[in-house]
Amino acid sequence: MRLSKFHLATVKEVPADAEIASHQLMLRAGMIRKLASGLYTWTPLGLRVMRKVENVVREEMVRAGAVEMLMPSVQPRELWEETGRWEKFGGQLLKMKDRKEQDYCYGPTHEEVVTDFARNELKSYKQLPLNVFQIQTKFRDEIRPRFGVMRAREFLMKDAYSFHLTPESLGETYDVMYTAYSRIFTRLGLAFRAVDADTGAIGGSASHEFQVLADAGEDALAFSDASPYAANIEKAEALAPATERPAPTAALTRVDTPTQRTIEEVSAFLGVPATQVVKTILVRGREGLVALCVRGDHEINEVKVAHLPEMPDESELASEADILAATGARPGFIGPVGLPESIPVIVDRSAAVLADFVCGGNQDGTHFTGANWQRDARITRVADIRKVVDGDASPDGKGTIRLGRGIEVGHIFQLGQKYAEAMGAGVLDDQGKMRTMYMGCYGIGVSRIVAAAIEQSHDEAGIVWPEAMAPWRVAVCMINPKNDAAVSEAAESLYQALSQAGIDTLLDDRGLRPGPMFADMELIGIPHRVVVSSRGLEAGTFEYRARTDAEARNVTREELFALLG
Amino acid sequence: MRLSKFHLATVKEVPADAEIASHQLMLRAGMIRKLASGLYTWTPLGLRVMRKVENVVREEMVRAGAVEMLMPSVQPRELWEETGRWEKFGGQLLKMKDRKEQDYCYGPTHEEVVTDFARNELKSYKQLPLNVFQIQTKFRDEIRPRFGVMRAREFLMKDAYSFHLTPESLGETYDVMYTAYSRIFTRLGLAFRAVDADTGAIGGSASHEFQVLADAGEDALAFSDASPYAANIEKAEALAPATERPAPTAALTRVDTPTQRTIEEVSAFLGVPATQVVKTILVRGREGLVALCVRGDHEINEVKVAHLPEMPDESELASEADILAATGARPGFIGPVGLPESIPVIVDRSAAVLADFVCGGNQDGTHFTGANWQRDARITRVADIRKVVDGDASPDGKGTIRLGRGIEVGHIFQLGQKYAEAMGAGVLDDQGKMRTMYMGCYGIGVSRIVAAAIEQSHDEAGIVWPEAMAPWRVAVCMINPKNDAAVSEAAESLYQALSQAGIDTLLDDRGLRPGPMFADMELIGIPHRVVVSSRGLEAGTFEYRARTDAEARNVTREELFALLG
Lengths: 565, 565
Description:
The structure is a homodimer. By secondary structure, chain A is of the alpha+beta class.
């Protein structure tokens, strides 16, 4: 592409409402323009990137055996009534009436339409499994559209739906989709994790979110540095330490800690590391108080606590009065030693392997040193009740947990029979019996991926595209071409040669001075920049710089092709 | 593609509301499924065809220098108010309110949005000309959606918009688009014509419709059999005959035609061909009656008559009383000889070259024979006032006029400054002066092309795709593969070899009997069918049949590849 024939429009000023890097950079690079709240025009530059994403998604869906189709974006109310979602979907559903006063919505998703298609189209188990997908514009009427195309109202989505006779078949296709999604995000050059989004209610591996790792992400994640393991931070499992609990060596000793209540205070006062202290929290359980014990450097995870059999759905801290009544001490001095039998003691896995530890004395102004489980303190149950921390062992046994944030760009889901049952979508099995189908659905936010990639990869100068998403892989820039025919000829010839070698190349023939020209190429994130200058031509070299290089260097034509090959 | 992995669903029953061949065949072939009135799901088979069309359109637009972008489908009312089209567009505009009670519409076209984009984006004449396009889902709330995707409410359209400093620049891009459109429809294998749709009011070549020739078309066309010439039948010019008017040889003679009033009656009664009779019609002009004379075998063209300077905008036949008062005779016996001087005599070009002709006697029950212009009858003006007929010379001098019907699949339009002026879209010229831009718009109905192609090319067995639009070029069918491993292996091997040769091939591995299998392949219109059977394998041949062949024939593998290469 010759840039003079392309509408590139980088800008300096960015509206104040562009809060995050990707939004700012997409506006500055001229990839998108705002039409109205949550509605964006994709300029030629922006669309070029989005199409690259779209094509990778399509190729991998086809490779995975899905077939592409296209359903209407405008959907009749009747179908949404069948699933009850006409009301339940809420304000995000953009509703409209046609000229005959019939109700429709702009499809935010297509479960109803595809299930209607399937119940008309599929008659026999022999037609199953079937996995169909589309790449289509969707609309969700967000209350507060923001962050540019990251949370736009109109967006491009790949949505796939699979139909099955059995849950096993659904599981197989789900796994195929999991693999396809992993290939897609890998090919796009994104650091990502598939996060188990299982609600626990259904059981099994019913849902995964694919998250692109980026600081601006909305979701807090825990992930392994050496494996695909990832989870929402609230759900990440904290493994039991690999070590056994040592045998007691110290005697239980009550010590005075007159004003020391927090772990930091106690541990500094007694000269004991926080990892050797047991922190005890009393909460209201289903039947009276429950004691939760974690290591001094750990935090209670309320989501995990809520899943304990002793706990109601919403856990609540015990009041100071309750604590005083039950233990005789105030918060800050509570410990597992000598607690009333009626209080279950739930000990976190990491706290359970401590010996000779420090804990509250259940008497104001005192703690115990040399405390030991079993000998001095009951354990009702050992459980995972703490938040994971950076440096924990990964629950899959591979690598170390890192904490970070993620942007959800994909979601795969085992829907089971929910929609098929509501809408009566069944097929005849090999016995001639009508059976409700099982369904899966698999979404990818195509337009959102563009923004997520920028969040993950940018610097002060602009976007740093992964090669697969770059609008062009290579930019050929010419210095002073108007006054130097040799330069423009050499640049043109290089551009032609690169293009013919199948390398997606941009020729910057706008005749800008080097400064603004280079700034544009960096802003729009072209991975490889080649400069053609008269000085270089004399030396028989081009100046080359990868977007991520600190310095440019001179290379011969052969070296350049080898670099880009 | 292996057909067993593809959701092909041909059907026998077609809903009664499918009135035309393309609608019926798209349903029978399983290309589309109706979701609601004017809303269709494109099945994998249908989408495959539509994508082929889309890709050709995109390639040729890019080749022609247009750059692709993507504007929102949901558009704010404010922009439509600026051009006055929020009201003027009428009921086809699907309006909606978002959760904040703001008004939007589902874009039926994008002049407002693109002009808004241009006025924000374009500042200098140096950025012009710019030609942008998108391929996008549109919505028009048709009063009576019908004919399947031919007149659906939701449809896929390619719309392009160009911006210019001068009308000359607009004209140049218009010509480029004309050529690009011609290439697109030629590549798609369609018989089409570009029809001058100039209203005459603006002047110049301001608008062309691209029409696919098909009997089911809504528009009556006249087109050359030997050139690209075409026009709406009402506007097609009838040339003057190449011959000069012969000199008179007969004497003007009044003959009795007591009950013969029509051309057929007079010509039979007098034994003179209709081509030697002049038919005279009296109409109300701006100032009194006007006589229109055409050859007996021709018809008056009211559109052309309405453009005569003597005529008001709406022409009207003279009443019998008026005719009698002016001529002394009743309709059926009127002729140009001896008409009052106050009545202008407008003579069609073909009638004007007649000599020794027959015409009405302006006296009930009589006609003249041997009548001649000038000698016997005044000519106020010779003009083109008749309808063209099949067999006329083409107005461009090349070939012969044929009459037929067309389906509009593309429209190119010089908008001039209409939208740019209404919305204040200007750029600075080289003098630093603000100038309103000139615009062109260029649409193609991508989904409609699919239906139009079927209307143009089908038979009793089903669709007959042009190669460029076929879902697959070749179908490899196997006979009795389950009981004959050699057949399935040979078919598989042939399928692989064809695919590797870059030939888009379908392997029908469903295991159907030959009858239903062949019927499906004919219905879905695959251009080339290859049958692998044990008998053929023994003979070292495959059975080959082009979709348009009457009979199948046996070919060797080499012959087959040569055929398909």
